[in-house]
């Protein structure tokens, strides 16, 4: 089994601060009126509340509903806090989590959740062990880094970072703090995706010549019509380190019960376009299959037509070409080898010749990290064992960097030479300026 190993030291035990035990004794998770009793009384399979991982959620938008269900499903975790700049969403999250505990844990009334409007207050709680970050892209790195410095392990939604230098800082922080970070690129926990990558790694397609990745368009400048800011929203904090944009409900709806995903993903001020949003899934699979989780392409060649939203060519040091190209099957990845081709997505897994997929891996073949299709439990287990999860900080950063560099290439419209070791562009001051940005001071 192949697994990313960090340089950080490993500890074999997770300590529980005295303040946490004191807190838990006052806010025990109960079924009806049952209080915490010694573990041996309740049986071998029971997990005491003092042994659970206390979770705080930062960002309570549409994605959070599904994430909350995933972590309520795990008996090794307990949701104790939620934070959002919308009062409507903190209230909705409390109800949603309460219903989940009633359904999944048979808790008639769950009173263990506290809501916040400022994530810094949530991070100040010593009883919270880890946080789940599902804010818009421009907040990810800032909140993840602050969380780790506050002693929390982190699950952060993809794309892991909005700017290249953010990823560099984030990886450095995980090494300095020895905290466990899982990136929400959960396709790595899918059996078909893992098998596809194992087939590529072990040469069942022959020598890989080209990889086609179809995901959405690059980011564009913000262009939405201004609307009145709802009274339930702290818009200044929502924008945070990004420019103070004109509010529009499509960017940040007041409710999660809408039939669209918020459009912050489309705009370069706060997102990376669907190129980043889905690229953090599909380029991530290409990286895993090619064994390049610690590096990336070294050359980016944008299309000659400056209005094109497909056609970016990327080259790895070994000569493999990767192209942002629509090959006619929706979002997915096509591997083209000397012995055949293979298409993989959430909706299909096919090869030509077809017998590539039925090939039995040999005992000597590389086997990739298997989470048993549970990306979320993998993170929780990694927290307890102090081992690296399937999509750690370096892995998430490198996949996000491909997306961020792709956006820069489309925006600037000229070839880019990238140094994966120094993580900067060669001889290109204009491109290097795009690796970072000056954050807005939103405290005033």
Number of helices: 13
Q: Please tell me the CATH architecture of the largest domain by its name.
A: 2-Layer Sandwich
| Count of domains | 2
Mean pLDDT level = 91
N- and C-termini, Cα separation = 51 Å
- Biggest sheet, spatial arrangement of strands: 13-12-11-7-10-9-8-14-15
Order of helices and strands: HHEHEHEHEHEHEHEHHEEEEEEHHEEH
Q: Report strand %.
A: 5-15%
Q: CATH superfamily of the largest domain, called what?
A: Dihydrodipicolinate Reductase, domain 2
CATH topology of the largest domain: Dihydrodipicolinate Reductase, domain 2
Low-pLDDT stretches: 1-46
Taken from the alpha-carbon principal axes, the silhouette is globular
Number of strands: 15
CA radius of gyration: 22 Å
Percent helix, as a range, is 25-40%
CATH domain class of the largest domain: Alpha Beta
User: What structural class do you assign from the helix and strand content?
Assistant: alpha/beta
- Largest sheet descriptor: 9 strands, mixed
